[in-house]
Design a protein that fits this description.
Shape of chain B: globular
Helix content of chain A: over 70%
Shape of chain A: globular
Largest sheet of chain B: 6 strands, mixed
CATH topology of the largest domain in chain B: Rossmann fold
Order of helices and strands of chain B: EEEHEEHEHHHHEHEHEEHHH
Strand order of the largest sheet of chain A: 1-2
Number of strands of chain A: 4
Number of domains of chain A: 2
Number of helices of chain A: 28
Oligomer: heterodimer
CATH architecture of the largest domain in chain A: Orthogonal Bundle
Distance between the termini of chain A: 53 Å
Distance between the termini of chain B: 46 Å
CATH architecture of the largest domain in chain B: 3-Layer(aba) Sandwich
CATH class of the largest domain in chain B: Alpha Beta
Number of helices of chain B: 11
Structural class of chain A: mainly alpha
CATH superfamily of the largest domain in chain B: P-loop containing nucleotide triphosphate hydrolases
Strand content of chain B: 15-25%
Chain lengths: ~600, ~270
């Protein structure tokens, strides 16, 4: 939410505009529409089941009541001159916020009144009596009118005041709310970690046993987070810029520290978490692995591959038919035991199968450019799934039945078994491949091949004229991406214990793509952030996330997030320096003119 | 003596337009040849044909090739080779509208040009073999060497600047540097001084001569600025409507009546 509020800051506008009734009405009604939408699709009602702060606040109310705050903020921002540093919100700003909120509330109330008659429930089946009861707090629409108009006016006024507040205060307030919200949402994770490191009294203070935060806990978190945000405003991005501007060895040192820190977290974190959270973490890592592979294809080489799931499927099916005792064709089966030769035979076969698949799919499509490539890969992705589903290959791949009873992977000599029932082992299993993928990505990006990919992404014709064999270089990116996806497939087969064609739908490709885009294309930490946020919090195509209630609305939220990112931050949450330059080249160019070094240069040229 | 580049009867038609109408053209080792001609004479198409970059006409999936004629470079027929192979054989080029890799740094632009002269692949990169490290070092050394050819213009802190931050003249220089970094024998420069001020033009004129004298390169350039053509060219070739209308020293060509006519049009009195 912080990003929503912060990036909604107005661009250059007219100085100190007077309140404009038409604009307020538009914003208010738009807010009402959003509120009505949230209720109509059932988000409000479903999320109400998740209590954030006992007993006052549920996720459902958060899902609905952010509307007046945001729209009050937006309406009030219109009044602010761009040069105004903020500090003291004017009366006009508060009033505009309040009226926007009130208008939105009135619209929602009206919507409630209409659907309470049951007239809309044929289309919107979630508009039940329960919905109107929730909306009116069970006290009828007279009471609801007071809450929705009065209460929303108040919330709108808060939003309006925020827009006029000094940036620092705003940052602190938003920080307090976001962190409290985060602590409530991530209860499962926080509780696990705290209990495991012997701080269970903290988690008892923060959380109810049945779920939800206690009020005192919430207040403490809010105050601490607010103070911290006040004190460290912008500290993170400042540090980031500083590290980025460092040269050679110093920067390398920070890189090494970061890498070592990440390794420690990877090793220690799964030990601290319960099996439920480890399961989530395993999904995150699985999609991170695929994201890293796709990042090479899209982020480095610039090839928009929408059929990436094909390679995931190849890895999973290869592992499945080689290890499952009931795999229709391949007997005697092998055990995925990395301390014996068997395991490495399977590993080698997966590698080989992925390479072959990469070459087979890659060769015909690689000559296409841009959109054509996307469409054709999309087709190939589906072809692979349908092949696995087909009767023709059913003797080998089991058709719609899939391949079941895939045994766990093992480290026989050490006596370790890696199976889906022990998610912690899966986390470590994927982590090994993730580390490999990170290392490979990092090395390749700083090599002859990485430079060739960059050149290819920027200008394919010129890259070719500079002696780069574009077909070969693209195919390499394709195959490396395919291999990483096939590793993910291997882990997936072991984790789930069975593979079906339906696990490899187009949706998987799209979600991996969204992970890469939202996280930040071409940047390894970015992909990790994307996987954590999307898969960890919202959940994967079939896997639930921390917010299990989101399951139903996952695609909606994915879509909204994607649109938002495209509009406000196309380079992703943690972008690569180069990608963000590509997307904001105009702004960078303007800055370049102001660069004193360049100013002297142009003078010298003219002399 | 056989020529380094020898082109015979090169023709290419785009729809109804005869862009190249059967050109014969030779370049000897160590020559600097200027190709001039009025706008639309087919000069850039001529360069595109040599470097394998004829624009796709959309009617076929295959790489567009000249309709007739052959291009032989050092004994290899390169008429229908892809651009990367042509570069590998030793022909590098620049573009009329500067086409750098704008978001790569200056140094990377020069480094990426050595792609076809180097060979280390995925495995060497992943395992950081000593030979990979050596190759990376030599790529970087060579790139810096090439950039140093331009004096201080592209040196020092500029190495790490993204190419789009460079001034216009420096972008042109970097493009030439990138071409030189492919270790070519023959460099095709497409209007190297376009858009430059007189001082920069003068500097570039000297640079082109130095490219031959110090680096041993053969240069063919398309140029509109006649002082440059006069100062650098061993030989001038004039194209008009896709055919060669004159050839010779600058003095010969500049007094040739056909050339004057092509540039200025036929004298009204003479036609009547």
């Amino acid at each position: 939410m912080a990003t929503v509020v912060e990036s909604a800051l107005p661009g250059p506008e007219l100085a100190k505009a007077a309140p404009n009734p038409a604009k307020i009405a538009r914003r208010g009604l738009l807010g009402g529409l959003v509120g009505a939408f949230v209720i109509a699709i059932g988000m409000f009602q479903t999320f109400d089941g998740r209590i954030l702060i006992v007993p006052v606040l549920s996720l459902g109310f958060v899902a609905l009541y952010w509307v007046p705050v945001l729209f009050g903020f937006l309406a009030s921002s219109d009044l602010r001159a761009p040069s105004d540093p903020g500090g003291r919100p004017s009366v006009a700003q508060v009033a505009v916020g309040a009226s926007t909120g009130a208008l939105a509330g009135a619209a929602v109330w009206l919507f409630g009144l209409i659907f309470s008659t049951g007239s809309l429930s044929d289309i919107f089946i979630r508009l039940t009596e329960r919905a109107s009861e929730l909306l009116t707090f069970g006290r009828g629409f007279g009471f609801a009118l007071i809450v929705l108009v009065g209460g929303w006016a108040l919330l709108g006024a808060i939003g309006g005041a925020l827009a006029g507040a000094s940036p620092r205060l705003r940052h602190a307030l938003v920080g307090a709310v976001v962190w409290t919200f985060g602590a409530a949402v991530l209860e499962l994770v926080v509780e696990d970690v705290l209990d495991e490191v012997g701080l269970s009294f903290v988690s008892r203070f923060l959380y109810e046993i049945n779920g939800g935060m206690k009020i005192p806990g919430a207040i403490v978190v809010m105050v601490l987070a607010g103070l911290a945000s006040w004190a460290f405003r912008g500290g993170f991005s400042r540090a980031r810029t500083r590290i980025r501007n460092l040269e050679g060895p110093a920067r390398r040192k920070y890189g090494l520290i970061g890498g070592a820190g990440a390794l420690v977290v990877i090793v220690v974190l799964p030990m601290l978490l319960g099996s439920l959270v480890n399961e989530l973490l395993a999904n995150v890592a699985l999609f991170l692995l695929m994201g890293l592979g796709l990042n090479i294809v899209i982020g480095y080489a610039g090839l928009l591959d929408l059929g990436y799931v094909a390679f995931f499927a190849v890895g999973a099916y290869t592992t499945a038919i080689l290890t499952s005792p009931i795999s229709p064709r391949f007997a005697p089966m092998l055990t995925l035991d990395f301390t014996t030769i068997d395991g490495w035979i399977i590993f080698g076969t997966v590698l080989l199968a992925a390479t072959l698949a990469g070459i087979l799919i890659g060769t015909p499509v690689i000559r296409m450019r841009g959109d054509y490539l996307a469409i054709v890969t999309l087709g190939f992705g589906e072809i692979v799934r349908i092949l696995f589903l087909s009767d023709w290959l059913a003797p080998t791949f089991g058709g719609a039945q899939g391949v079941r009873q895939i045994p766990p992977a093992e480290l026989g000599l050490v006596g370790v078994e890696i199976a889906g029932i022990n998610p912690q082992s899966i986390v470590y299993f994927v982590a090994v491949f993730v580390v490999i993928a990170v290392y490979v990505s990092y090395r390749l990006s700083k090599s002859r091949l990485g430079r060739a990919w960059s050149a290819l992404r920027e200008d394919e014709s010129v890259a070719e004229a500079m002696g780069i064999d574009t077909v070969k270089v693209k195919l390499l990116a394709f195959v490396i991406g395919a291999i990483l996806a096939s590793f993910a497939g291997m882990v997936f087969a072991v984790k789930v214990g069975s593979v079906f064609p339906n696990s490899f739908a187009l949706l998987v490709s799209i979600i991996v793509l969204v992970v890469v885009i939202v996280g930040g294309m071409g940047n390894i930490p970015g992909v990790a952030v994307g996987a954590l946020v999307l898969i960890g919090v919202l959940g994967g195509p079939t896997q639930p996330g921390v917010l299990q209630e989101f399951q139903e609305f996952k695609l909606l939220i994915y879509g909204a997030l994607l649109v938002f990112m495209m509009l406000k931050r196309p380079e992703g949450l943690l972008p690569s320096v180069r990608r963000s330059r590509e997307l904001h080249q105009d702004e960078f160019l303007q800055d370049a003119w102001l660069d004193p070094a360049d100013a002297t240069e142009s003078d010298e040229d003219r002399a | 003596m056989t020529s380094m580049l020898s082109i015979s009867q090169l023709a290419k038609k785009f729809g109804g337009l005869q862009a190249l109408g059967g050109i014969d053209f030779q370049v000897d080792e160590g020559e600097i040849v200027s190709v001039i001609g009025p706008n639309g004479a087919g000069k850039t198409t001529f360069f595109n044909a040599i470097s394998g970059m004829l624009p796709s006409t959309g009617s076929s999936d295959h790489r567009p090739v000249p309709d007739t004629g052959s291009i032989v470079f050092r004994g290899n027929d390169i008429t229908s080779l892809p651009p990367s192979d042509i570069t590998k054989l030793g022909i590098a080029r620049t573009f009329q509208n500067v086409r750098l890799f704008p978001n790569m740094t200056v140094l990377e632009n020069a480094m990426v040009a050595q792609h076809c002269r180097t060979s280390k692949g995925v495995w060497a990169t992943i395992f950081q073999t000593p030979s990979f490290r050596r190759e990376e070092e030599s790529i970087e050394r060579r790139a810096k060497e090439v950039l140093d050819f331009f004096g201080t213009r592209l040196a020092g802190y500029r190495h790490e600047q993204p190419a789009f931050m460079l001034s216009y003249a420096n972008r042109r220089r970097l493009e030439i540097a990138r071409a030189i970094a492919t270790d070519p024998a023959l460099v095709l420069l497409d209007e190297p001084t376009a858009g430059m001020n007189p001082k920069e033009t003068l500097e570039l004129t000297g640079l082109i001569t130095r490219m031959r004298d110090e680096l041993g390169l053969t240069v063919v350039l398309i140029e509109h600025a006649m002082p440059v053509v006069r100062d650098v060219s061993d030989r001038v070739v004039v194209l008009d409507h896709g055919v060669q209308i004159a050839e010779g020293s600058y003095e010969d060509v500049s007094t040739n009546e056909d050339v004057i006519e092509a540039y200025l049009g036929r004298d009204a009195e003479a036609t009547s």
